[in-house]
Amino acid sequence: MIPSYDLLTIGHSNLAADRFMALLKSARVSAIADVRSVPFSRWCPWFSSKALAQRLAEEGIVYIPLGDALGGRPRDPSLYRDGVADYEAMAARPEFAAGLAQVVDESARHRVCLLCAERDPLDCHRCLLIGRALAERGLAVGHILADGTIEPHSASDERLLVMAGGDLFRDRAERLAHAYRRRAQAVAARLKRAG
């Protein structure tokens, strides 16, 4: 019995294509929302958008490219603070809100799974930016892990709080916001310097 989630996420990492498909099938995923800014993999070419969309179609899974609206590597340099992608600024953009609305709309028709590259949700904007925004809107988000288990977003929040340590005298919401900010600063995309 799979717990009830409104949306799922997965990081393809270096999974074999068949293992990746097995994870999707076991979670009954019927649509992939690709939230990679650059949907390409040199090391695992089966995760490049064209090959992936074809394989998903063969398995009866819809492919939805959303990297422009929900990707973690913004093209706009104003969305970087000190050279690091600023998730809070990205979340405030109308394009981001429109991307979230499209994901929510698709979830009424499909069992949607957000796709990015990083294995651990806490290393990826799919959790730290998108999953957080969806959870704050009251949606139940689950992260498919490489071993096939699904981690509820609330459990990801707890792992994040433990990782961050910090001041136990602040209220939980404040500690969690600080933990998100710190983790994003550590793992978010960096601007490439010319030179």
Secondary-structure map:
Layout: E1 7-11, H1 17-26, E2 31-34, H2 49-58, E3 62-65, H3 67-70, E4 80-81, E5 84-85, H4 87-91, H5 94-107, E6 112-116, H6 125-136, E7 141-144, E8 150-152, H7 153-164, H8 172-187
Helix pairs in contact: 7-8
Q: What is the CATH topology classification name? A: Protein-Tyrosine Phosphatase, Chain A
Major sheet size, sense and barrel closure? 6 strands, mixed
How much strand content do the residues show?
A: 5-15%
Which structural class do the helices and strands define?
alpha/beta
What's the order of the H and E elements?
EHEHEHEEHHEHEEHH
* Rg over C-alpha atoms, rounded to the nearest angstrom: 16 Å
Low-confidence stretches: none
Percent in helix: 40-55%
Q: What's the overall average pLDDT, rounded?
A: 94
By CATH reckoning, the class would read Alpha Beta
How far apart are the termini? 54 Å
How many strands in all?
Answer: 8
CATH architecture: Alpha-Beta Complex
Strand order of the largest sheet: 3-2-6-1-7-8
Q: DSSP helix count? A: 8
Shape: globular
Oligomer: single chain
Structural write-up:
43% of the residues lie in helices and 15% in strands. The chain is of the alpha/beta class and 195 residues long. The protein has one domain (7-187): Protein-Tyrosine Phosphatase, Chain A (Alpha-Beta Complex), CATH 3.90.190.
Describe this protein with a few key phrases.
195 residues; alpha/beta; Protein-Tyrosine Phosphatase, Chain A; 6-stranded mixed beta sheet; two-stranded antiparallel ribbon; 15% strand
